[in-house]
Structures are given as structure tokens and as C-alpha cells.
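Why does residue order matter? Because the sequence determines the fold. Keep that principle in mind as you read this record.
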Amino acid sequence: MSGFPILDLVIGMIFLYFLLSIICSSAVELWFSMCNTRARLLEQWLKRIFDIQALDSHGIPKLEGNKPVSVGEEIMNHCMVTALSKTGKSTSYIDAVNFVSALLDKITLAPAKPGTNAVQLPPVNLDQYIAAIEQSNSISGELKRTILSFAHQAKVAAEVAIPAATNVTATISSAIKSDLDQFRERLENWYDTNANRLTGTLKRKKVLPSTFILGTIITIALNADTIEISKYLYTNKDAAKQLSTTAMNTYREIDSANKASIAASTGDPKTVDDLNQQAVQIKQYIDSVQVLNLPIGWKNKPVTDSKSFWNYFFDIAHIGGWLATILAICMGSPFWFDLLNKIANVRGVGPKPPVPDSSGKN
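Structure:
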């Protein structure tokens, strides 16, 4: 497709790596969804950071049976964040706005006074929030200082912004954030930062090891030997060209689908339905590759008996080819898709057409 056999080979190998990576990542994603790995990690963080006993809406210490309920558990059970998760369990994803609403609701409750049983009303302005948080016993001293620092920063920022807006129109003035809005925004940014760190921990401690293990299984099960496949594509120019064409066509289809669905993206983890739909697409990609008769799989390999199988299995060349494929899978499908994108952009760039001069000649 490119007119350069070596470029067809490179594009074909990138497409195969992308295909194997997306198979592996989909399987890992499905496994984590079934095991609620993200939800458990978020739950651990909430219970560790907000580990002090919570108060109910009347200001009475919350108990579940005879066991104290922590603020972290109450946040997970709050109507703003809970979905269909069990009591005391986290969902896989909590929006920053809803998290802050649940957090402020739980840490601004004061212990009930003797003889009173009224539901406590929430603060209505930043000064009341500051006073309630200063008196709160539901969070640690370090966390209290952090939240109060956000509150005072928001108060100062609002006091600076309001005088500067005295000479602007009412429309622009109405867009200025109040001190309470800025306080909530700082809390949301703090939560998003911690959520990003949790995502990094998930990738480092869970996703990468699982991808390596599953990538090894997939590579050996499919006998996806990078060295053998590269040799085949190098000596079979037509197969390399056809694989390159398939790769570019598939890239365009995926890119168009991503652009069409980007507006509907919510940032939520993938659901099982999404993964099932992705599995159907993967099968279509596999079918498009199978017709090329690439040297993938154990069919037509010299493994007729146990001795020949182990000789083939422990051959240094095959081990090196498998290891290259495994490492390529660990790079992840987004990496190989971006590489296809760059190659497609480079291939779309060419010399400018000649501009005719005043005589009509080029």
C-alpha cells in the first residue's frame, strides 16, 4: 500500500502488536471489572484517609451493630455517590463534584447536644463551613488543616476577584465564582489529584503485572513469534502489502469511531457491554488477518511428538521472538495506535503541487 516494502512490513508488525495488545488489555479490563479491582483500591483509600468514626444527621456517633462506622464508609454510602454497590463498599468511579458534596456533608456535622434530636442543617456559606470544619471531630488534624487551607485560599481569591470586577458588566460579574464555589473547586482538584495517583498505583501494581502474565500466555498460545513473522513478511511482499492495507483501513475505522463517540465519553470505567462490543470488533480484526496465512499458531509447526515440541519450544530464536512480542504487548494498544496515527500522518504529507507562474508554466 505504501510503495515501500520495508514500510509495509513495519506497518504490518505495528498492526499485529496493536491487535494482540487490545486482546490482552480487554481481557485484563474484563478481569478487573469482574473482581472490582478499581472499586477495592478506591475503598482502601477512603477507609485509610477518613478512618474516624462518623456522625449521623442528628450528630450521634454512627454504629453498624456494635461496630463504629468510619467517615470513609459513610462517604461510600452517601446518596450522592452510591449506586448499586453494597453497604460499606465503593463504586468503581466517584465523580469529584459528588465526592466533595458527600465529604462536606459528613465532616460538618457536630456532636449532638444532650436532649436534642433534630436533623442538623448544612452550612450555607464559606464562613459557616470554616467554623463547622474547625469544630469537627470527624477528620484528622492534618486533613483538617489541609481542607481549611483550601477554604482560606478560596476566601482570599474571592476577595481579590470581586473588587477587580466592579467596572465590568453584570453579565461578566455574574460569572465570577463565589468563595464557596472556589473552595469546592479546590477540594475537587485535590480529589482528582489523589484519584490520578490511585490510577497510577493501579497501573503499576495491578495492570502491568497482569498484562505481562496474560501477554505471555497469549503469545505462547498463539505462537506469535516476532522474528518468524517479520521474516515471513520480508520474503512475502504481497502479504506485507495486504497486511499494511488492512492496518490502515482498520486505523481509519477506529479513528472515525473514536471521533464520533468522544462527545459521549464520561470518563467512567468500561462496562461489560462495552467490552463485549469491543470483543466483536476484535474478532473482525482477527478474521481480516487470518486470511493472510501468517505464521501464527501451532499449525504446520514441527511439533509432531513431545521431543520435537520441546526442542521447538526452547529454541533461542523462538524465545527471543516471543519475548519481543510480550514486550510489545506490554506497551499497550494506545501506544501502537498512536504510532499508526503518526505513520498515517507522515504518509499523508507530500511535496506541495507546483504553482504555475504568470506564463502558465510550472
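The first helix runs from residue 5 to 35.
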